[in-house]
Amino acid sequence: MFFKTIKEGWDTTNQLMGYILLFSMYQLIWGIFLYRWIQSIVHSISQRIPISEIKDAQQLFMIESGYLISNVDFIINHLTPLIILLSLRWVLSPLLNAGLFYTIHYKHQESSRSLFFQGIVKQGASFLFISFVHLVLLAVPLYWFISFIKNKLATLTSLESIFFNFVPLVLVFVVYAWFIHIVVIYMQWRKTTHNALLPPIFFIFKHFLFLIGFSLIMLLLLGLSKILFSSVSIFWAGLFAIIMHQVQYYFSTYFKILEVNIQYHFWTKNKPQ
Amino acid sequence: MIHIVRFLGYFLLPAFCLLLFYFIFFSQSNLSTLQVDSNKSYFEEEDTISANGASTQLEQLSTLEYSEPLSQRIVDYNIDVELDDKENQLIGSQTLTWVNPGKKPVQELFFHLYPNAFQSKKTSFIVESGGSLRDDNMKKNSYGEMMIHKLWTNNGKELSQNTYFIRPDDGNPHDFTLMGVKLPEPVLPGKQITLNMTFSVQMPYVFARMGYVEDFFMAGQWFPKVAVYELKGMRGREDEGWNLHQYHGNSEFYANFGTYDVLIKVPSKYIVAGSGTLAGMHESDNMKTYHFRAADVHDFAWSASPHFIVEEEVFHLENANNVKIKLYLDPLHSELKRRYFYAAKAALENFTKWYGDYPYDTLSIVVPPQGGNGAGGMEYPTLVTAWAAADKEPDSSLERVIIHEIGHQYWYGMVASNEFEEAWLDEGFTSYAEDKVMEKEYGIRSKTYFEASYITSPAALKQNAWDYKYKNEYAQNVYVRGKLVLNDIENIIGKNQMDHVLKTYFQQWKFKHPSTEDFQAVLEEVTNQSWADYFHEFIYGDKMVDYAIESLQINEISNPEEPPLYEHKVTINRNGAIHYEPVSILFSFSDGTFIEKEWEGTDKNKHFDFIHPSTLSWAAIDPDHTIILENQHINNFINTSVKSDAKIRWNLLLTDWIESVINSIIW
Questions:
Q1: Residue B394 lies in a domain
Q2: To probe the interface with B, which of A11, A13, A27, A54 has the most B CB atoms within 10 Å?
Q3: Of B3-12, B96-105, B492-501, the least confident
Q4: Would residue B312 count as lying in a domain?
Q5: Where does a domain end: B306, B341, B363?
Q6: Which residues lie closer than 8 Å to B156 by C-beta, 6 or more apart?
Q7: What pLDDT band is residue B15 in, cutting at 50, 70 and 90?
Q8: Which of residues B276, B306, B336 is at a domain's end?
Q9: Residue B560, class by beta-carbon neighbours within 10 Å (0-12 exposed, 13-18 middle, 19+ buried)?
Q10: Which domain holds residue B141?
C-alpha cells in the first residue's frame, strides 16, 4: 500500500508540471533576493578583513566584528530585509497552498475558471488562519528558547558546554517543529476535503508510523539533492555553481509537491469518514 | 518513460530562465560598507566656580592627639565594634562629631546605611546590578542589612524618632540606604554636633565589597556614615548643601575627610587588618581588641581572618616619610609575598615621584581567600585588597590590582572626587597611573587600540554612575575611555607636560574634592591653552574618533597604444570627533608599490584620486594604530582583492543553509 500511494503521488505530481515550474520560479525569485542580501553582507564583511601585514589588524577585526554582531542596532539594520522577505512569504505561502491543495483535490472537475485561483478565493482565508496558528505554535517555544539561551550563555563559558547544552534543545525544537508541520499539513487537507478547521489528531496518531517513515524518506531525498548541489557550489565555484544552485529549486519544488500529493492520496484513503 | 521525458523537458526551460536571471542580477557589483552611526548627543558644558576650601571659622574637633591636619577635618568618628563570627554580625556603637563647614545653619544630618543595599531583591543596588558585580554574584538568600538601634545627642536627647529614609535618585520605596535625622536644634556655621548611636550589621556572603567567606570577614561600608556637605562653589555648586545619593549598582563612594578612632573586638583567633595605624591591642576573655587610628582619611575599612599570614616591610624613599607596608596574606599565597611587596613598593615609589608624598605611615594589603573576590580589588584609605587567592601562581593581574588600588590612594584617597557623580576622576586616572607603573616596572605595555575597540558604547564621562545604560557601559567608559582620554591628552601635550599637569592637579587638590572642571582648569593653566572644545567632545560629550574608508571606485582608462591605466577614487569619512593631528592613509597597489597620504581629518570627508598603472589592492587608515581614541578599526581597512570564487562559495553556502530552513516550513 505504501508503494502504491507513492506511485499515485508520483503520477498526480507529474500532471502538475506547470505548477511545479511556476512554484520553482517563485522560489527562485526569493532565492535571488536572499542571495543578494547575503552577498551584500558577505561582501561588506570580506572587504574589511585586513591583511596580516598590518600589525594586530586581524585581531582587531575579530574583536570588533564580534561586538558588531552583538550590537542590536547593527543586527536590526542588517536583518530588516530578511525579516520583510520572510513576512511576505509567510503571508503568500498559505495562499499558494490553498490553491495547490484545491487543485489537487478537484483536478478531475471541469471548470471554466482556474482551479488554483478558485482555491485561493474559497479557502485562502482559512489557510491564512491555519498558518497564523502555525506561526504562534512555532514562535512561543522559540521565544522561550531564545530567552533560555540568553540566560544560559551568561553562565556557560566553554564552547563544549555550550554545544552540549544547546544541541539537545535544538533537536527537541526541530522534532517539535516537524510534528507541528505534519499537523498543519493534515489540517489543510481536512479543510480542503471536509471543510473543517480542527486538526485530525486521531488520524495523525493512528498513522504515526507511516507519517514518520514517509517524512524520513522525503527528508532523505531532499537531503541528498541538497548535498549534491551544495558540493557543486563548493568544488566548482563561479558561474557554474550559481547555475547549479538555481537548478536545485526545480528539484526541491518537485519533491515538495510530490510530498503533498502522496500525503493527499494517503489522506483520501485513510481519512476519517 | 513518458514522465521522465516530460520531466527533462520541464527541466530545460527553467535552466534557460536561470541564465537570464543570472545576467540581470549578478553582473553588477557595488561596494557597501560596514558602519555604525555614533550618537550625536552632547552634554552641555557647565560654567563652574571652583572652591579651594571654606572660609568659615570652624570649631576645632578634639583631635589633638592626631598629627597636624592635612585636610579640613569635618568628621570625627569613635567606633566600638564587635564581630560575632557565628552569626556573621557586627554589633557596634559610634560617636560622631560633625562640624558644619558651611555658612548656613544645618537642620538635619544624613547617613549612608550602605549594608541596606543587600536587604532585599528590590533595593536600588540589587535591581540595577541584577545581583552581580564584576563577575561576582550575590549568593541566593544571603542578605545583609544595617539596623540603627538607638540614636541620641551628647546631652542625652533621643533622636530615633527623628529618622526617616530618602530616595533622591529614583524614589524606590524599597531602598533604605540613605537616612535623614532631624536635629532638635540647627548646627550653626562652624559649630559642631555630636551624635551617638548603636547599630548592628548583618553581613551578606561576600559580595560587592563586603561580607564573609567562611571565617574571612571584609568590613567595608560597615558603619553609619555621614554624607558629604558641599560648600558653595565646590564642584560648581551654586549653593551649599548635602550631596545625597543612594547606594547604586554602579557606584562607589564620596565622603568628607576626618579622623577615625576604632576599637574592633574579635574572637582571639582572628587577626585584623584595618585602615590607619594600629595604636594598640589587648586580649581578655578569649577576645582580642584592636585599636586603630586614622586621620585625614574619608573612610575606614577592616578585615579579619584567623588565617592571615602577616608580613611587614618598611618602604623608604629619600626625602619622604617611611611607610610600613603590612601584608595580610591568604596561606595559598604565602610564597608570593615578594611579588606583593615589590608591586606595592614600585607603586609607592613611582607615585611619590610623579604626584607627591604618600603622607600616611601605614599601607595595609589584604589578600582574600579563594571565593572571596567580592571583597577583592578594592581601595580604602590606607587599606587595599588584592584579588582573592585562587591560583598558586597567578599572572600579572596580581601586580596590576595592587598597583591599581595603591594608585587609588592618590586618585580617591587624597584627591577625593565624587565617585557618585564623576567616577572617571578616580577610575580613569588610576587606570592611567596603573598602566604607567606596569610599563615602567614590568615592561607590560597596554595596547591601547585593543582597549579602544572595547568601547562599543561611548558615553559622557561626567555623569552619575547609575545613569550609564548598563554595567559594562559604566566600566568601559569610566575605566577604559577615561584612561584613553588621558593618554590622548598626553600624546597631544607630551609626556613631560602631562606629568606636570598631574603633579599640579594632585598638589592643588589633595585632601579636597575636585570636579572635572577643576581638572580642566589645571590642564588649561599648565598648558596655557583652552581645552574647552576637547572636553566638550570627549569628556562632557560621548565622542570617539572614527575615520572610515567609505568607498572605493576603480575605472580602467584604456589606451590602444599604451598599457592601461587605472583611475582610483577613494572616499574617507570622518564619523566621529576630529583627531588632533593629520591622519595617515596607506595605499598599496597590486604591483607592489605604496603611496602614503596625509589628511587633516577636519572635514566630514575627503576624496583621494589617483591614476596608477596597476590597481589598488588595499588601503588602510592609520596602519600603525596611533589614534588612541579610534574605536572602529574595522572600517579603517578596505581590501579590493577578495577572491570572487571564495565569495561566491560563501554566498551560496549561506544562502543554501538559510533557504533550507525557510523552505522546509513555507513556500
A1: no
A2: A54
A3: B3-12
A4: no
A5: B306
A6: none
A7: very low
A8: B306
A9: exposed
A10: 70-306
Q: By C-alpha distance, which of B237, B257, B236, B233 is closest to B55?
A: B233
Q: Do A241 and B649 touch (CB under 8 A)?
A: yes
Domain count, chain B: 2
Distance CA B170, CA B130 (A): 16
All three cell numbers of A37: 542580501
**Does residue B89 fall inside a structural domain?**
yes
Instruction: Name beta bridge partners: B106.
Output: B187
Compare all CA atoms of chain B with the CA of A184 and give the residue at the minimum distance: B665
The residue whose grid cell reads 547604586 is B248
CB < 8 Å to B10, chain A: 17, 20-21, 250
The pLDDT tens digits of the residues spanning A142-195 come to 888 777 777 766 666 566 777 777 788 888 888 888 888 888 888 888 888 877
How many other CB atoms are there within 10 angstroms of residue B120's CB atom? 14
Indicate the residue of A20, A65, A245 with minimum beta-carbon distance to B652. A245
Please give the torsion angle defined by the CA atoms of residues A9, A14, A16 and A20, in that order, rounded to the nearest 10 degrees.
Answer: 100
**Spatial separation of the C-alpha atoms in residues B178 and B199, rounded to whole Å:** 15
The tens digit of pLDDT for each residue in A70-126 reads 777 888 888 888 888 888 988 898 888 888 888 888 877 766 678 888 888 888 888
| Probe site for chain A from B4, B18, B588, B657 (most A CB atoms < 10 A) | B18
DSSP-assigned beta bridge partners for residue B91: B82, B200
Which of chain A's residues have a Cβ under 8 Å away from the Cβ of B12?
none
Work out whether strand B132-133 and strand B287-297 pair parallel, antiparallel, or are unpaired. Answer: unpaired
Closest residue of B to A134, CA-based?
B665
A17 CB burial (10 A radius; 0-12, 13-18, 19+) = middle
Mutation pick from B590, B625, B648, B661 vs chain A, by most beta carbons of A within 10 Å, is B648
Instruction: Report if residue B451 sits inside a domain.
Output: no
Query: How many whole angstroms separate alpha carbon B596 and alpha carbon A67?
Result: 30
The 8-class DSSP code of residue B411 comes to I
Q: How far is B473 from chain A (nearest CA, A)?
A: 13
Chain A residues in contact with B635 (beta carbon < 8 A): 48
User: Grid coordinates standing for B417?
Assistant: 572626587
Burial B149-187 (b: 16+ CB within 10 A, else e): eebebeeeeebeeebeebbebeebeebbbbbbbebeeeb
For the stretch B460-482, what's the b/e string if a residue is b when 16 or more beta carbons lie within 10 angstroms of its beta carbon?
Answer: bbbbbbbebeebebbbbbbbbbb
Nearest to B457 by CA among A152, A115, A100, A67: A67
Q: Write out the three cell numbers for B1.
A: 518513460
Residue A133's contacts (CB-CB under 8 Å, 6 or more residues apart) are A184
Contact B656 A50 (CB under 8 A): no
CB within 8 Å: A177 and B658: no
CB contact under 8 A, A233 and B656: yes
Distance of CA A192 to the CA centre of its chain: 22
**ipTM of predicted assembly, 2 dp:** 0.81
State whether A42 and B637 contact (CB < 8 Å).
no
Question: Do residue B647 and residue A46 have CB atoms under 8 angstroms apart?
Answer: yes
How big is the A-B interface in CB pairs under 8 Å?
Answer: 188
State pLDDT tens for residues B459-513.
999 999 999 998 889 999 999 999 999 999 999 999 999 999 999 999 999 999 9
- Per residue in A194-207, pLDDT (tens digit) is 777 777 777 778 78
**CA B298 to chain centroid:** 19
